[in-house]
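User: Hello! I'm new to structural biology and keep hearing that structure can be predicted from sequence alone. Could you demonstrate with Na+ antiporter MnhB subunit-related protein? Please show me the input and the output so I can see what each looks like.

Assistant: Of course. The first part below is the input, the amino acid sequence of Na+ antiporter MnhB subunit-related protein. The second part is the output, the predicted structure written as tokens.
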Amino acid sequence: MDNNMSREVAVGLSFMFFGTAILYSLYGLSVSEGVNAIYLSSSNYIIPNLVSAVLFDWRSFDTLGECLILVNSVIVVGMVFGRGLFSLEFLKEAYGKKQDNKEQQKQEEEFEKTHTIDYGFTPLIKVLAMPMSIILMVLGVIVILGGHITPGGGFQGGALIAAAYILAILGYGTKNCPINFSHHYLESLETFGALAFMILGLVGMVISGSYLFNFNELFGMNIFPSPAGLESVGIIPYLNTAVGLKVLAGLSTITFLLTGEKVILGNIKDDN
């Protein structure tokens, strides 16, 4: 049995095992009221939006944990599908023959011309992909900025913007994508979002002793001025923005890694 067949059998058995375990757990699941009554009956919310209050006032540690799960997902995808593992120089050194610099440079240029993978689709899809990507990005920004007064928020808005990036890549390919997020830019964006979320939580802990405490004023200044008739929402909009940047950068980084050019070892061996 070759390696591919063994891997497929292992994956199939894993799906069967975990699928059976999940179905068994769901079958024996008992639904209890839990903390729903507390969420719905309590009026001690700084923010009037129940969804945001649950996410950031009551379950802020859960939201922070979800961000950490996304970080781990990016790390795993980077380790498994990282562009460095598929670089021509690395594979040539590992599986190819030694050449002098001029010959190696010439072969690398030929390889780039003949083995470049274009994931772009037909012109019709390209014409539709860009306007839809722009609409998704604008909608994502609106969902993030309005998360404190609507059921939206950072996770939903960040996922929408990342979906716009994915759609643009599917339509135009990785080389000619009009929405160009470099790897270093995504790293900086993700780092900024994570640090902003944690720093805001630390400020709340300094003020009240509770991490991610939602506060309205700092040094006598209103944190997030609201229009007349709306209650103050505290740091929720800033938390939504930080989470949105984190989710946007994380999902886009995963897409960036998965759609990077892959070098097939068989072609390397054939070329040599």
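User: So the tokens describe the shape?

Assistant: Right, they're a compact way of writing down the 3D structure. Reading them back into a model, for example: The longest helix spans residues 183-208.
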